[in-house]
Design goal:
Order of helices and strands: HEEEEHEEEEEEHH
Strand content: 35-45%
Structural class: alpha+beta
Helix content: 10-25%
């Protein structure tokens, strides 16, 4: 103890430790938020994607998202970025996974908090900010053995996410592993797969009908 305050093994109080501490001594990742927005349209399950208007992955389809500012939570970022890139607002967002595989983003150490939302408001998506285009993709699912493939049907192209399914060791919830995507930016094939598994079974069944 020093002046009634506990000390660490170097004999420093918390105030003394913080006075000498510098965050530059420790590498830190950037944090982003990415959002998978689904809707039911004409009895089909659809996913909202944006075409990236800038580097990296320029021209590729991605889930809406962006960097977390120092003065906001990841949840607040998700709502803000969704509104800025698609003009879709007031949806209830649920966190689903943390994407942290080394090398997932060519800009450096970037970790993403992924969210899922279900649009039941009839929102009209319009591209904004750094999104060049928005589009709803119809989702169909095909199971073969222990793998599932989601095909995302756009107006002029098809994208995909292929993944295996396991169960989390404590909750037993479904979990997507070994995801590979076609035509999707970064590792968004993983977040899309997990978002689909997070949906209620009755909604996932809509994509299994085709």
């Amino acid at each position: 103890m020093k002046n009634g305050q506990p000390v660490d093994k170097s004999g420093l109080t918390e105030a003394e430790f913080l006075a000498s501490y510098t965050s530059k001594d420790y590498p830190a990742p950037s944090l982003t938020a990415d959002i998978c927005v689904f809707r039911i349209h004409r009895q089909h399950l659809e996913l909202l994607l944006v075409r990236r208007g800038g580097h990296p992955c320029i021209g590729q389809w991605a889930t809406p998202g962006g960097f977390v500012n120092p003065n906001e939570t990841a949840d607040e970022t998700a709502a803000r970025e969704l509104a800025e890139e698609t003009h879709v607002k007031s949806l209830k967002l649920e966190p689903i996974m943390l994407l942290s595989t080394p090398g997932r983003d060519p800009r450096g150490w970037v970790v993403s908090n992924a969210f899922v939302a279900l649009d039941d408001t009839g929102a009209i998506a319009e591209a904004g900010d750094d999104a060049a285009q928005t589009q709803w993709f119809r989702v169909t699912a095909h199971k073969e053995g222990d793998h599932t493939q989601l095909t995302l049907h756009g107006k002029d192209e098809e994208l995909s996410s292929d993944f295996a399914i396991t169960h989390l060791p404590v909750s037993g919830h479904l979990w997507a592993t070994d995801a590979n995507g076609k035509g999707l930016a970064f590792d968004h094939a993983s977040s899309i797969a997990q978002a689909w598994l997070t949906l209620p079974e009755k909604l996932r069944e809509l994509s299994l009908k085709d």
